[in-house]
Design goal:
The chain is of the alpha+beta class. It has 27 helices and 76 strands. β75 and β76 form a beta hairpin.
Length: 1674
């Protein structure tokens, strides 16, 4: 147990140390693997069950002492390693591995100390237990001795009962004493073992004494280093804070400056605003005064308007009061009149009865006469109102004419003054409309007062004066004009367009009458237009006449108001209106005088400036439109002897009347009689009402009289009156007879007594020998039906013989255009007075053994009570019953009989012929016997009988073995054998059973089968046998037997179901669970023990497990194999990473290749068709003599370019296996599948096998024994979804490869990401290595749906190696991982210039010389270079302000820029200046030296800059320029390499031609003789004489030189060779000077000798050479 605790402590301390180690990980990446190897040493290795162990001969000991020993061995190794590392790194900063070793050592020492403390505690407890045991032994010994003494005493006393009791106590004390002694020995042995172990631990602690001291020193050193690092960090933070504070101060300063500038601008703006305000106040005061005056006027107008409205309201109130009083008076008067009329009618009825006349006929004629008188009175009043209306219109038209004349006079006055501009015209017109619109609307009191009042109002209000009404209409006529004009201006636009009515209809015209219609033509264009009549359709010329009303100055409603007035003034022919300005209108009157009675259609055509237009005309004659309200009259069933009447309505919706005749159809064999009727009875206003449809159809006639049609001919006045009277009479009938229509629209039963009088007067009687006529017609069988009217026809049914009666009737018309109308009449007569209204009693669907009841209603037509007896057929007497058996039904009443039906299972055998076994339909006849009647009444009872059984399949369920940690599910089928839906439910379920869906409750449709899932979850290990009960809604029970065996496995899973979140493709979701071993005891009475059913209990000890994950599944389980000790648990991590299968990607790649090939083939065909078409056009052009187009010459080239497409027509798609994973096709297919991925849900059940024993202790290759019934199952729900964010750049690859990048240089790559989801995403990014070369430049915050955003990632390597990092783009749905790769490469070049100086030599001033050098790229990446000269640097001006280097005397020359040209042009030019050198390639550079004056100090610095940053090479460019062809080089410098700012004047040409001798120049030549101990080294120097190759100085081909004073030099020890000679152009000769000190040389005084060197070329030059020699001792 101590060993197990030791490893647990290791794991805990390792977990605690992990954050610190991860924090220090960046210090040394190279030792990361070493750290994890050391940190994971305590963990054991897992092996799969059945596999061979790598250490099969090693068996782990459970002894704590051995565990300590092993730990001490490992600690010893750590100690040695730590000591060695400590000795090597005493004076150095501790590395990462050292700190890891310190942590491990401290962990092991702490573990050893903890074990020692625990062991010490165990020893103390054992000692305490031992002392307690010894104390109990002493106490038991004393009690035993005491008991023995008492036994002796009782023996002496002879107390047998006490002796037996004391002996039993003695035996008990002896047994306890023996037990205590055994316990004492065990405790002593355990104490001895613990002491021994404690000694071993103390020995081990002693071994680590020196190591502990060294560890304390290292910990102190580590703490000191941590403090130093903390101080350094604090110092850096302080520096950064100071910099930030400085930046903040600078920002504040800039902000203050900006604020001051803003204040100045604001002050200026305020001053300007103040000045503007002062100016505006003056204008504002004037404007406010005008506004106040205007508001005062408006307020005054408002007050006046309110006073007018108040007066109008008061007058309205008074009128309402008076109208109420008048209405009450009229109601009282109407009631009195009605009462008086009823009294008169009763008197008249009595008088007619006294005279023996027909009461109905006389009353009907009287009502008709009264109605006629009323109609005449209404017509007279209407004529009066019409006259008033005509007068009002004439006055209105005269007012409009006067107004028009005023407008015309005003317009003529304006024309006489001159043509007004268009703007003024429009302004005048606008003000006219404003005047009309702003007039007082209260003046329009009666807009349509001239409309004809209703007939009812004229009849009721006889006391009202017609004269008052006419005066009021005349007073308001002028007001109507302006008000209607304003209303029309607001309702319709001013310019409605040059349009015509859709159809000008002259409906129901009469021959010989004249009709007129007005048409308004408006110029809707923006210019002056003309209108001309072209003509009328040919067949309308004899009936149509066109007149016009010239109204150039009148537009809109003015023309409509003055139409009829101008009809009298205008000629009878159309006069063109002439020019019509924009918006002007012209009215045209179309006069129609029909001479023939035919339908006429045509059009009137006009011609305008912008084209012709026409107005369609349609003229219809009067027609008859006849219809019946129904085509079938069904009288139903009646008893013989009754009389029933029905009504059918004949309606004429046309404007033409006709005669009709009602008769039987020609082929009708039914019996019917026709009663004669006179013509006087044809029309009855009291009975013939008009429906709502007739009312609507009659409204156009009425409106046409007022609006569309006008009677012109005075001869036809009477006809118009008649027509008008007819329309008004129809309207009156509609108002007065609506109640009668409702009453007569229903079928009325006429008793025999009511019709005896009419039948007595009817002269037509059926002959006795003929069959009785049962269906007859009423009195009205023929007559005339007027326009827009209806007539009711009566049909009478008098049954005399039982049976069905059918008759067909026809209505014929005199008008040949009207087809006859037909209708049918049917009826049924019976002779039995009792009947069943529902002869078919349908009990619908019934179940066996269920009671069903129904109530049967029996009705009687008899006028006396009848005795009834109810009988059921003998076959169904056991299943059906009618209660009561006998009953009495009263006269003309009903009787209820109760039907009871209880079908039993014997029904199919008992019912016999009444039951169909296939359809299960039962039809049972029932009989009702009537006393004194031989014919019974029968009715049928229908029912469908079905069973109520439910079938469960299978009848028995065996769940098998089921662990207590999971549920077993099986499916059963529940079938409804009934044809009725049945509700069911499983009741009384055990707690370990669940039924789904709906918890085992539901409804089964007829003959439906439903699958139910029975879920069994064992709660303990035992054998289960139980029954499930299913009950139906009728309380029937159905049993299901179940069996199962409960299994308690040794291990358990903390979670049996893992539901992963929706995981995007290539993303990873992780779940954590534990494998727990809770089996620590075999006591089955205290807790549940692992077993299979009632089998053996599993042993206590280590238990192994193994998860078997399916192949090619996206699930990984770590670890999949392991061993769990009793009471412990093992952490299991499950990873779900959905990916696309390679086979799917390969198949998609093949499909994409096929689609591309199909597209290429289609494009090829299109291209070939185009080429063939062009070829045909070229051939056709040649035949026609045309020059072929340029495309024709290019045709062969295009044909050749399409050879590849032609060759690819035989494309064979590759096999999916041939597609490589790194090919472009594979990548494109993968990208396409990811974008089109719609999601996938997979469910995995992972078995976990359990075996007793340790996986590390198995012998050889034999497997651990395990039972399949102990298998645990882990269910995984793995939903995979499409990624919300994808990479759209780089073919959708998630790899960002920077390739090779020069060290120190930065490259930025742009990655395009797209949101392919349907919602906005907030993005987060993982942190890249702060010390790494990769940097996320521009993170994106949010992505809209479908939006593309750019990510910029930079790569700047700091060393030459391969770099790799991952960047996680996190969203709320998924994580996108980008792999970033880059290779840092150090750029290197090789230059052909040896050394650092490129000497251009000497050149004649104002001439140039070139030199070439080469640079080679020796690195593996392309180099982008640029060549820069120091003389052209931007910082050159600042550097020139410094002191020269020869004054400051720096350690080395830093200024490489020497003499420059006077012209400002650069002395040295380089080509090329920039470019790229590929790897392994080289580039030639040309340097041009072109001085413009003489100087020996031309120089510049050439810099080779790579990637615009790094200076890879610096070359010092030198050159000298001479005005003459010779030069001397060598000696010590006597002047500075800088030119004076003063420009010396050049030598004149005459001096140059005369070869004048220039003044002598000085040369210093110092020689040092090195004196050694034995011998010396002569001092040697050289002077170079050169001749410049040039095209100038053609007379001198070489340069001569000579040196004088040779003897003196030789005497002083100098040797010079040669002394004189010549130098050809372009050549250089060296004069060697050597010196050996003579014998009399004094080393303390240097030797100085002078000589003259003479050069002769284009001129003669002399140089005074000063030789200085000295001896140097080494």
């Amino acid at each position: 147990m101590e060993d197990i605790e030791f490893f647990d402590i290791c794991e805990k301390e390792q977990t605690a140390a992990t954050p610190f180690l991860e924090q220090e990980k960046d210090d040394d990446d190279s030792v990361t693997d070493q750290f994890w190897n050391v940190a994971n040493q305590p963990n054991g290795k897992g092996h799969k069950i059945g596999e061979k162990s790598e250490e099969e001969n090693k068996i782990r000991s459970k002894d704590a002492s051995e565990g300590v020993g092993e730990d001490s061995d490992s600690s010893g190794e750590i100690q040695e390693r730590h000591m060695n590392n400590g000795n090597n790194n005493n004076n150095k900063t501790m590395k990462y591995a050292d700190r890891v070793q310190i942590l491990n050592l401290r962990r092991n020492l702490n573990q050893l100390d903890n074990i020692a403390k625990e062991k010490d505690l165990t020893i103390e407890k054992a000692r305490e237990e031992l002392s307690a045991c010894q104390l109990r032994i002493e106490m038991l010994t004393k009690e035993r001795e005491c008991t023995e003494t008492k036994i002796e005493e009782e023996k002496e006393a002879g107390n047998t009962a006490a002796i037996f009791r004391l002996q039993a106590m003695h035996r008990r004390l002896c047994a306890e004493l023996g037990n205590e002694k055994d316990l004492e020995s065990k405790i002593a042995l355990m104490l001895k073992e613990n002491v021994y172990e404690m000694w071993q631990i103390e020995i081990e602690q002693g071994k680590f004494g020196s190591l502990r001291e060294r560890l304390e020193q290292d910990e102190e050193e580590l703490e000191r280093q941590c403090k130093e690092r903390a101080e350094q960090r604090i110092q850096k933070e302080k520096t950064a804070a100071q910099l930030a504070e400085q930046k903040q101060q600078v920002g504040k300063k800039k902000e203050m400056e900006a604020w001051e500038a803003y204040e100045r601008r604001h002050q200026k703006v305020v001053e300007d605003a103040h000045r503007n305000h002062e100016k505006a106040v003056q204008f504002l005061k004037k404007s406010m005064s005008r506004i106040r005056q205007k508001e005062a006027k408006e307020e005054l107008k408002t007050q006046e308007h309110m006073e007018k409205r108040m007066q109008a309201v008061l007058s309205l109130k008074n009128n309402i009061t008076s109208n109420r009083e008048t209405l009450r008076t009229l109601q009282v008067r109407d009631k009195a009149k009605a009462l008086e009329a009823k009294k008169q009618e009763m008197k008249m009825r009595g008088a007619i009865l006294a005279e023996g006349g027909n009461v109905t006929k006389e009353i009907f004629l009287h009502k008709q006469r009264v109605e006629l008188e009323r109609q005449k009175q209404e017509f007279t009043e209407q004529q009066k109102s019409r006259k008033i209306e005509i007068v009002a219109r004439i006055l209105q038209e005269e007012a409009c004419v006067e107004k028009q004349k005023k407008h015309q006079a005003r317009a003529e006055a304006l024309r006489s003054q001159g043509k007004l501009p268009d703007s003024l015209k429009w302004r005048i017109k606008t003000w006219q409309y404003i005047e009309n619109a702003c007039e007082d609307p209260a003046r329009a009191v009666l807009q349509k007062s001239w409309c004809t009042p209703s007939a009812c109002s004229l009849v009721d209000d006889k006391s009202s004066s017609v004269v008052d009404f006419s005066e009021k209409a005349l007073q308001d006529t002028i007001r109507e004009n302006d008000d209607e004009e304003a209303n029309e201006t607001l309702v319709e636009p001013e310019f409605t367009g040059l349009w015509s009515q859709e159809c000008n209809l002259y409906k129901d015209f009469d021959v010989g009458k004249t009709y007129k219609k007005k048409i308004i033509l408006i110029n809707a264009s923006y210019s002056v237009n003309f209108c001309k009549l072209v003509g009328v359709s040919e067949h309308l010329k004899d009936f149509i006449n066109i007149q016009n009303l010239i109204s150039r100055g009148i537009t809109g409603h003015d023309a409509q108001q003055t139409c009829r007035y101008w009809e009298k003034l205008c000629p009878s022919s159309f006069d063109p209106p002439g020019q019509m300005s924009a918006g002007m209108s012209c009215e045209v009157v179309v006069t129609f005088k029909p001479m023939i009675n035919e339908v006429l259609e045509g059009k009137v055509t006009f011609l305008a400036q912008n084209g012709s237009f026409s107005i369609p005309l349609q003229c219809t004659i009067k027609r008859c439109v006849l219809a019946l309200d129904k085509e079938l009259i069904d009288f139903g069933t009646h008893v013989v002897g009754e009389t029933i009447s029905r009504t059918i309505i004949l309606t004429n919706r046309g404007a033409l009347g006709t005669r009709f005749k009602l008769q039987t159809s020609a082929g009708d064999n039914g019996t019917c009689t026709t009663a004669k009727s006179s013509l006087e009875r044809m029309v009855s206003p009291a009975l013939d009402g008009i429906t709502s449809e007739e009312k609507a159809s009659s409204s156009p006639v009425e409106s046409s009289l007022y609006e569309n049609k006008e009677q012109v001919s005075p001869v036809k006045t009477e006809e118009v009156r008649q027509t008008y009277m007819l329309g008004e009479s129809q309207k009156t009938e509609n108002n007065l007879g609506s109640s009668h229509v409702e009453q007569l629209s229903q079928d009325a039963l006429i008793t025999k007594a009511d019709l005896e009088a009419e039948n007595a007067q009817s002269p037509v009687e059926p002959p006795p020998e003929e069959e009785p006529i049962e269906i007859t017609l009423g009195k009205v069988t023929e007559g005339e039906i007027g326009p827009f009217s209806s007539i009711k026809l009566q049909v009478i049914f008098t049954p005399s013989v039982p049976g069905d009666v059918h008759a067909e009737f026809e209505i014929a018309f005199d008008n040949p255009n009207c087809k006859p109308l037909h209708f049918s009449v049917i009826g049924v007569s019976v002779d039995v007075p009792v009947w069943v209204p529902n002869p078919n009693v349908d009990l619908k669907i019934c179940m066996y053994d269920r009671l069903y009841q129904d109530c049967i209603i029996i009705r009687s037509r008899a006028k006396a009570a009848l005795r009834l007896k109810f009988e059921v057929c003998k076959e169904l007497s056991n299943h059906m019953e009618l209660l009561p058996k006998t009953g009495y039904i009263q006269a003309q009443s009903s009787f209820s009989v109760q039907l009871k039906f209880l079908p039993r299972h014997s029904l199919p055998e008992d019912a016999g012929k009444y039951f169909d076994t296939e359809t299960r339909v039962l039809e049972v006849p029932m009989t009702i016997m009537i006393a004194d009647k031989t014919k019974p009444i029968e009715f049928i009872v229908h029912a469908i009988v079905t069973t109520s059984d439910l079938e469960i399949s299978p009848a028995e369920v065996n769940f098998g073995y089921c662990t207590i940690y999971e549920a077993v599910q099986t499916t059963i089928t529940l079938t409804n054998k009934s044809i009725l839906p049945q509700e069911f439910g499983f009741v009384g379920l055990p707690e370990f059973v669940d039924i789904q869906p709906s918890d085992g409750f539901g409804t089964l449709l007829p003959l439906e089968s439903l699958n139910l899932d029975i879920i069994f979850k064992a709660n303990k290990a035992k054998e289960y046998s139980f029954e499930l009960t299913c009950k139906s809604e009728i309380n029937r029970q159905f049993k299901l037997s179940c069996k199962a065996v409960g299994v308690h496995p040794p291990l358990e899973l903390s979670h049996s179901l893992v539901k992963f979140a929706a995981t995007a493709l290539n993303d990873v979701s992780t779940a954590t669970l534990y494998v727990i071993n809770a089996h620590v005891s075999l006591n089955r009475f205290t807790h549940a023990v692992p077993r299979i059913g009632k089998g053996e209990i599993a042993p206590v000890g280590p238990t192994s497990f193994e998860f078997l994950v399916p192949e090619d599944s996206p699930v990984t389980i770590m670890p999949s194999v392991g061993t769990v000790l009793p009471g412990k648990k093992c952490l299991i991590q499950v990873y779900f990473r959905p990916v696309l299968s390679e086979q799917l990607i390969r198949e998609e790649a093949v499909q994409m290749l096929c689609r591309e090939d199909a597209q290429r083939t289609m494009l090829k065909k299109i291209h070939e068709s185009e080429m063939q078409k062009r070829k045909d056009e070229t051939v056709a052009g040649k035949k026609d003599g045309k020059k072929p187009s340029f495309a024709a010459f290019r045709q062969p080239l295009r044909v050749r370019s399409s050879k590849h497409a032609a060759a690819s027509s035989g494309f064979e798609p590759p096999k999916p296996e041939e597609i490589k994973t790194n090919s472009e096709e594979y990548i494109a297919a993968q990208y396409s599948l990811i974008r089109n991925f719609t999601g996938k849900f997979e469910r995995y059940i992972i078995p976990c096998f359990v075996a007793s024993g340790d996986i590390d202790e198995k012998i050889g290759s034999e497997n651990l024994k395990y039972s399949p019934y102990n298998t645990l199952y882990l269910e995984l729900h793995c939903p995979a979804v499409a990624p919300s964010v994808v990479v759209t750049s780089n073919n959708g690859k998630n790899i960002v490869n920077f390739g090779e990048v020069a060290v120190g240089h930065r490259i930025i790559k742009r990655i395009t990401i797209q949101n392919i989801s349907q919602e906005q995403l907030a993005l987060g990014f993982s942190i890249l290595n702060p010390n790494g070369p990769f940097l996320l430049v521009s993170p994106v915050g949010t992505l809209e749906p479908g939006e593309n955003q750019f990510l910029f990632i930079s790569f700047c390597p700091n060393e030459s190696k391969l770099f790799f990092e991952t960047l996680d783009i996190r969203s709320i749905k998924a994580t996108l991982t980008l792999s970033i790769i880059g290779h840092g490469v150090a750029p290197s070049i090789a230059c052909s210039v040896e050394g650092e100086v490129l000497d251009m030599g000497y050149v004649i001033a104002k001439e140039k010389v070139t030199s070439t050098f080469k640079i080679q790229n020796t690195s593996t990446l392309p180099l982008r270079y640029s060549i820069k000269l120091e003389s052209l640097s931007q910082t050159r001006d600042k550097e020139q302000q410094r002191l020269p280097f020869f004054i400051t005397s720096p350690p080395g020359r830093t200024d490489f820029v020497g003499t420059q040209n006077y012209s400002g042009l650069s002395v040295f030019n380089i080509f090329p200046v920039e470019g790229v050198i590929e790897p392994g390639k080289s580039q030639d550079f040309t340097v041009t030296f072109s001085p413009d004056h003489e100087s020996l100090y031309y120089s510049d610095c050439l810099k080779v800059v790579l990637f615009g940053k790094e200076i890879a090479r610096e070359i010092w460019l030198k050159g000298a320029a001479r005005n003459h062809m010779m030069f001397v080089e060598g000696g010590d410098p006597l002047d500075v390499p800088l030119e004076s700012l003063a420009i010396t004047s050049p030598m004149s040409e005459e001096a140059a031609k005369g070869e004048l001798e220039e003044p002598a120049k000085s040369l210093l030549l110092s020689l040092e003789y090195i004196q050694a101990e034995t011998s010396g080294t002569p001092a040697v120097r050289e002077l170079k004489i050169g001749a410049i190759r040039t095209a100038q100085f053609a007379s001198k081909k070489n340069v001569e030189f000579s040196l004088d004073s040779l003897p003196v030099l030789q005497q002083k020890g100098f040797t010079i060779e040669p002394v004189k000679g010549t130098v050809d152009r372009g050549q250089i000769k060296c004069i060697s000077v050597s010196w050996v000190p003579p014998a009399d040389f004094d080393p303390d005084h240097p030797l100085m000798v002078a000589a003259v060197l003479t050069l002769k070329g284009d001129i003669k030059e002399s140089y005074k050479v000063l030789f200085i020699a000295r001896v140097v001792c080494t």
